[in-house]
């Protein structure tokens, strides 16, 4: 059943701009560095001896921001597919459980975000090569900077999906997304327990893996809370 | 014209717009308190530094993004179950509908600016800033930031009318707003990027001589020019839109 639901969800998001946004997120993050390095490459290369590390840091300064806003956009988009045509009722009237409906929506979104992380890795690596930053390519760091922010942002994905599926007015989840984005932008000033700090991979222990583990754990928890709330609500 | 404005106002009152408006001062409070200790380091400049820090986050990212949400809320009723048809079947011209909606979004942005001003005052009072409040500078900044959103609101209203879903115009907004973070660091490109203008107009360290914090030429060409472009684009699109 869940396979069929997933297939139908993937069919529903076709030709609506989901894949375009999934591409634009990582592309935009790297494109900003293309402009940055295009305008003042010499200055930026002088800033550090570790050109690759400095470049990855520059890319990573935008990754969490794009991720948090991307999550807000995609989750709201996902909910509005059903909201716009009042299709929630029809969807729930099918012989499927509400839990599986919620799970399939979450899975599709997680797949999209995962795909954009893969793209981010490819783009980061490719533009790094174009910049000719030296032969010692830090492969592990590129993988970490591409996938860790996504894993650490799973709680935000779960929360945003919850808010947008239960909101009639999609202005509310988008506003929540903006506020979360402001928190992510100010991550440096936040205590470690704030979930919007996690995608930045910063913490007091200076251990990015901690954010990833917390992200996956709390993400699952928030997902279950959202799912239970969704199943108990009346469908309008 | 007045009747149209009233009907828009009634729709707005049922749109749960208040939580969205309150997010403005919320951001103000958050930044104001997060940065309290740094602001206290310099005596004699407490107001100046508090406002400078608060504006940095608020004007650079929050204000351009929230204009898009407000523009989307204004078009929400019309996108649901054929509302455009019902509205335009009334004896109103499309041009008037567009202008009224635009003015209403501007009013909401002004409200959010005033609420933000309130949060500045509250942060100052709670942090116990005893210096005289720089009234003129702050009003310049609040109204300047408002003026700088005119073109942004016009584009967002256009996009909100164009797309049925809420997220699509917001995605356009995000794509155009995020580069501001880089653009404001550039002396060459910063003055020409419309989405960086709210920041420039609210940046209280700017040019003190003019009415606002940016030169008149920049205000007229960048803000004015992009306003004319986006407003006419949205206006003409709406005239031809099939409902």
Task: For this entry, give a set of tags.
heterodimer; A: mainly alpha; 76% helix; elongated; B: 243 residues; mainly alpha
Quick take:
The complex is a heterodimer of chains A (236) and B (243). Chain A has 236 residues and is mostly helical. Chain A has one domain (2-232).
Description:
The complex is a heterodimer of chains A (236) and B (243). Chain A is an all-alpha fold and 236 residues long. Chain A has one domain (2-232). Chain A is built from ten helices and no strands. Chain B is globular. Chain B contains 13 helices and no strands. With 243 residues, chain B is mainly alpha-helical. The chains are: A mainly alpha (236), B mainly alpha (243). The A-B interface holds A 17, 21, 24, 28, 32, 35-36, 39, 62, 65-66, 69, 72-74, 76-77, 80-81, 84, 169-172, 174-175, 178-179, 181-183, 185-186, 189-190 and B 15-17, 19-20, 23, 26-27, 30-31, 34-35, 57, 61-62, 65-66, 69, 72-73, 76, 79, 164-168, 170-171, 174-175, 178-179, 181-182, 186.
Number of helices of chain A: 10
Largest sheet of chain A: none
| Count of domains of chain A | 1
**Quick one: which chains have the greatest interface?**
A-B, 35 and 36 residues
- State the helicity of chain A in percent bands: over 70%
Ends distance of chain A: 24 Å
SSE-based structural type of chain B: mainly alpha
Tell me what portion of residues of chain A adopts beta-strand conformation: under 5%
CA-to-CA gap between the ends of chain B? Answer: 21 Å
- The counted number of beta strands of chain B is 0
Overall spatial form of chain B: globular
* Quaternary structure: heterodimer
How would you classify the helix and strand content of chain A by structural class?
mainly alpha
Low-confidence stretches of chain A: none
Q: Helix count of chain B, per DSSP?
A: 13
pLDDT < 50 runs, ≥5 residues of chain B: none
**Overall morphology of chain A:** elongated
Please give the share of residues in helix of chain B. over 70%
Transmembrane segments (chain A): 18-39, 59-81, 102-130, 142-162, 174-196, 208-230
Pfam family, one (chain A): ABC2_membrane_4
Keywords (chain A): Membrane, Transmembrane, Transmembrane helix
Protein name (chain A): ABC transporter permease
């Amino acid at each position: 059943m869940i396979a069929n639901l997933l297939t139908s969800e993937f069919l529903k998001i076709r030709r609506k701009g989901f894949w375009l946004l999934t591409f634009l997120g990582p592309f935009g993050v790297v494109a900003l560095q293309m402009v940055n390095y295009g305008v003042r490459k010499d200055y930026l290369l002088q800033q550090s001896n570790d050109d690759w590390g400095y470049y990855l840091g520059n890319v990573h300064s935008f990754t969490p921001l794009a991720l948090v806003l991307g999550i807000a956009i995609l989750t709201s988009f996902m909910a509005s597919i059903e909201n716009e045509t009042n299709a929630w009722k029809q969807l729930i009237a099918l012989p499927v459980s509400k839990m599986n409906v919620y799970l399939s929506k979450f899975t599709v979104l997680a797949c999209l975000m995962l795909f954009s992380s893969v793209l981010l890795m490819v783009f980061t690596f490719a533009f790094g090569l174009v910049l000719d930053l030296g032969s010692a390519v830090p492969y592990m760091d590129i993988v970490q900077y591409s996938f860790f922010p996504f894993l650490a942002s799973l709680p935000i994905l779960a929360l945003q999906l919850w808010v947008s599926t239960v909101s009639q007015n999609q202005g509310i989840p988008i506003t929540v997304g903006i506020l979360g984005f402001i928190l992510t932008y100010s991550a440096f000033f936040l205590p470690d327990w704030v979930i919007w700090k996690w995608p930045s991979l910063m913490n007091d222990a200076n251990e990015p893996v901690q954010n990833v583990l917390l992200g996956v754990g709390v993400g699952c928890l928030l997902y279950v809370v959202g799912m239970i709330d969704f199943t108990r609500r009346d469908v309008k | 014209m007045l009747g149209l404005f009233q009907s828009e106002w009634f729709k707005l009152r049922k749109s749960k717009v208040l939580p969205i408006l309150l997010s403005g001062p919320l951001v103000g409070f958050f930044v104001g308190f997060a940065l309290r200790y740094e602001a206290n380091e310099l005596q004699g400049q407490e107001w100046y530094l508090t406002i400078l820090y608060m504006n940095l986050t608020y004007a650079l990212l929050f204000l351009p993004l929230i204009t898009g949400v407000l523009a989307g809320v204004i078009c929400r009723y019309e996108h649901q179950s054929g509302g455009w048809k019902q509205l335009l079947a009334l004896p109103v011209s499309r041009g008037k509908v567009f202008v009224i909606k635009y003015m209403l979004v501007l009013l909401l942005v002004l409200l959010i600016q005033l609420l933000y001003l309130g949060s500045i005052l509250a942060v100052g009072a709670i942090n116990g800033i005893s210096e005289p409040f720089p009234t003129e500078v702050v009003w310049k900044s609040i109204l300047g930031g408002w003026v700088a959103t005119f073109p942004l609101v016009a584009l967002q209203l256009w996009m909100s009318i164009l797309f049925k879903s809420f997220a699509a115009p917001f995605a356009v907004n995000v794509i155009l707003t995020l580069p501001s973070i880089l653009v404001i660091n550039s002396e060459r490109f910063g003055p020409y990027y419309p989405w960086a203008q709210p920041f420039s107009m609210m940046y209280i360290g700017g040019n003190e001589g003019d009415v606002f914090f940016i030169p008149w030429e920049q205000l007229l060409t960048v803000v004015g020019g992009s306003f004319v472009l986006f407003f006419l684009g949205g206006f003409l699109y709406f005239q031809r839109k099939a409902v």
